[in-house]
Write the structure tokens for this entry.
Amino acid sequence: NRLDEKFNRQNLIGQSSPMVKLLETVAQVAPTEANVLITGESGTGKELIANAIHFNSMRAETVFIKINCSALTETLLESELFGHEKGAFTGAERRREGKFLQAHGGSLFLDEVSEMSKAMQVKLLRVLQERELTRVGGAEVIKVDVRVIAASNKNLKEEVQNGNFREDLFYRLNVVSLNVPPLRERKEDIPILAQHFLELFAGRNKKTIKAFTPRAMEKLLAYHWPGNIRELMNAVERSVVLSRTDYLDADDMTLVMEKSHEVSGIAEQGEAIRNLSLESMEKKNILAVLADCRGNKSETARRLGITRKTLRAKLIKYEMNR
């Protein structure tokens, strides 16, 4: 559909209701100039959403600059964001442009913005309000034209209430808010995400792996994915690299948190999973592989790691035998 085409190059994959709703909102927000705040757990794909906003905006042909606010000390973050003059501090041997000036005319992605100190929050607020900045150690006031897209794995409203984040900065960043759902709340997307990663890493590693067996897919669907899409991607890559067969089976899938959180039946995985049956997931997986094989049932059965007779029985069971 149009949403799939629109966001395909940003690798935003998903057909679940939460994901479709999110992408519809992204499609509405992207063409505007509004600042956007993206929240969600670590590994859910917040940076991909930021990419999608930029590359579907009026600034798409300009730069997309990103910075992780939690990875730098306060002094270094200030220099990275606003730049510095020669001699501003020990080691500043030449003038340096900061991320805001690098992003002039484009978009700046501030990841983990909630980790900024109160002092840095004040400085960021001033730039957002005045649309101008001064380099560290300088006096020149420089106008900047930047669309800011911020992200956090924390609830910023709660951070404001707890006194950890400035309320005025929150409202400057939160013109439009987007929440990226965790993978456990969009389980129906796992088959297509997993297949996408399988094909990606099989290609990179010159492997002939075609698909997951039904047992492997059941294991993926029953797992709780605390690390979200990032964990799924890593699990598939690890399995592809270590596999010696054309199909990934359950035994090939090593899940990091499996011992502390046993992979149990889907019925025990929370309300989102209770409303989701393995049969519906198996049906979607079969449909996806069948479509990829252009209706060739022999090839579909081979990719799924089942016999043609078993495939035929499943097609009849799911009323797909047309």
